[in-house]
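Problem 12. The chain below contains 332 residues. Write out its predicted structure in token notation.
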Amino acid sequence: MRRLLMVLISAASIAVLTGCASPAHGPEEKYFLVTTNTKVPYWQNALAGLSKASSAMKGIHVEMVGPETYDPNAEHEEFQHALTKKPVGILVSVSDPKVIQPDIDAAIAQGIPVITMDSDAPKSKRLLFIGTDNYRAGEIGGKVLVESLNNKGNVAVFTIPEQANLAQRMHGYSDVIAAHPGVKVTQTIDMKGDARVAFDTTTDLISKKAMDKIDAIVCLEAIACPEVADVLDREHVKGKVVVAMDTDDRTLTWIQKGMINATIGQKPFTMAFYGVQMLDNLYHNKPGTLDRDWAQDSFSTLPTVVDTGATLIDKSTVDAYIKQRDSATAKQ
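Solution.
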């Protein structure tokens, strides 16, 4: 018993000396995640990460807010409303940097730490970005694309031009495609964050025989490719390479059915869980000032980017992914 007591005392002393002791939490600790398209599975997985963080740090308040559609102005309004609730930290997925950057800077001016996740506003005063290396995600998708096409074919891309993270993904795709002259992007479609645009455009391409000249379809965001696969299946169009993004349930089902070749899975659960932990540490160990150029400070206590990783999910790995997801998001 004496030896056990000494071990416990030593462990407690080390925790205090290293600053690892768990801080006390209270209801004044309010953390918000502000985003758009809140009902899509991607953000429901992020919400599960928030809930997991709340369980781990008993007593804190976590909440995800934002419009149910892609609407940067509505996201701006939700951000402003969250500020009125006296948050001690905010995570935000930036739909349009021009719209959301002033909100981020205003929060920092009020002494509220802001971390961007999933989609960044690098010119804002946010403290850091946590999420996917989107260029790398594009490279992963690009390699699957050219291999599936056997290095030859025409590609149509569904995207949202305003979103910086999607532009970064396209950059990754473009660099891979550039090394394979037989593969060409012949059409880029702004799907405006609306699944109906993807459905209607794919239907139109088929009805006008334009799909005959398209060998592959790439979706740079989550909600387009399930619609694309649905239309291709309805119209009995076979032999098209389809590379999706994220892990919508319908995307996974279409992979199992063979209508989508692969998708690039991100880790919104991890982004949200780790993001709240970082905000909590900033609340309990707040730096002297938040308004500084952290990226240019070689002795900063904060990283500039936290890469949560991306994974390739295809027919050989989709079942294992579903088991992992269901285990992680199950209610405790």
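Discussion. The chain has a mean pLDDT of 90. Students who got a different answer should revisit the alignment rule from Section 12.3.
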